[in-house]
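subagent[fold] <- orchestrator: predict structure for attached chain, return tokens only, no commentary.
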Amino acid sequence: MLFGIGIIGINFILSIINYYDSGNLFNVLNMMNSAKAGMLFERLNVVNLMGNAIECQHIIFAFHFAIIGATVLISVLKFNYTVSISIVSKQTGFICRVKRIFNRGEYRSKSRIYSMSLISSELYKSLISSKAIYAFIVLAAVKIGISSIYNQYNATYDDAVYKEYMTLLSGEWTEDKSDYINAEFTRMNTALESQESMYNKYKNGNISEEAYLEYIEELNYSLSRKSLFETRIQRHDEYIKKLSDEGKEAYFIYDTGWKKLLFPAFDWTLFGALLLFSGLFVREYNRHSSSNAFADILRLTKKGRIKIMRAKLIVSAGVSAVMAVLWNLADIVIIYVRYELPCPNAPIYSIREFANTDLNLELWQYILFMLILRVLIWVALSMFICTLSALLENSITLITAITAVVLLPGLLSELSLDLMNLLDFISFSKVTDMYLQGQTVLIIYAAAFAIISFLSFYTAKKKWC
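subagent[fold] -> orchestrator:
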């Protein structure tokens, strides 16, 4: 069942990504988009397959037919293998007895030394024994793939022009830079206003063809750049002057890459990984036989109960912190490779979205602060899931409860229910999104989350210990 939930979750994530190419294989083959009739029949979608244009309907049919066939084949083979093993295991004969004798020696040679540390035992049980490590490796690979797609550099003409101007003006504001911006704006206006007069001069033979062609190049230059220059370069110059009057400082900076770092997408793969891992108490309540659950044995003594709970919380916090760091590093490395991140010492006000904040930080300082806060948020969520698993005792109930608490407010806030913004964990985990709504909103949510987590911990401790 968890495997099925994981498959549906991965397909959902792939369906909400913005693809620049409608024929992208991830966009075409995921189940969510395949189920939409509009995508199949509203317009012609083709996929480039080894130089051939193949309609996406044929690709979808062939892919899902192959998946279903492979699943059925694996299920049949696994069932037959399991049955044959169970039949062989019941056989009694000389050969089987000999095999058992040799197997005993093999088992003795492969015996391992068990650690006396509860933390080490919990790590082994939660990652290795439960085979959760394989799920984490798969989710990490999916994370890298999704991050690679989401943070793909879209090489547009507008961004290339924006990068050219911001690289030229990069750094602190000066009078010379402001004069250059005004001169460039005047140059464009002059070229656009002279269009009719220059045509008449060329038509009447007052200017040569070479001079007119030079003017046409200037006109094309102005037409292609004026809109972007007004909305981004000139407005940023005015923005810096306005901030200067308020006692704040901002730089000219090419911020496309920085905005990718500052405004990340919600980490669905990390959420799924923590959801699978952090329910450490659920495993102790699972009954593998008709006898009582293993939790009854673990809770025989009060001192043992306290130590086990402490070990589980430490393992939950430690593993989730490592995972959160690795997941964030994946985004940072991909963005660093694909984008330029100039002027890391620029004031945070250089990003216009932060104009109304009171942060006196440089860009790299805010990025570090944001990453630390994001790691702490994911660690807090992991510990909340861990304590809640001690109360609910069932993985299905736990997943349902956590999904409702974490995702439902975010979905409702998308329906313009402003009150849900105060309960939106999706926005909270991104840090910047909630902070820009107001520092008070971030503090209120952090306080509410801390209170709920404390109540969950207190109740779980009272029940377990």
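orchestrator: received. Logging for downstream: The beta strands are 46-49, 52-55, 171-172, 251-252. The first strand starts at residue 46 and ends at 49.
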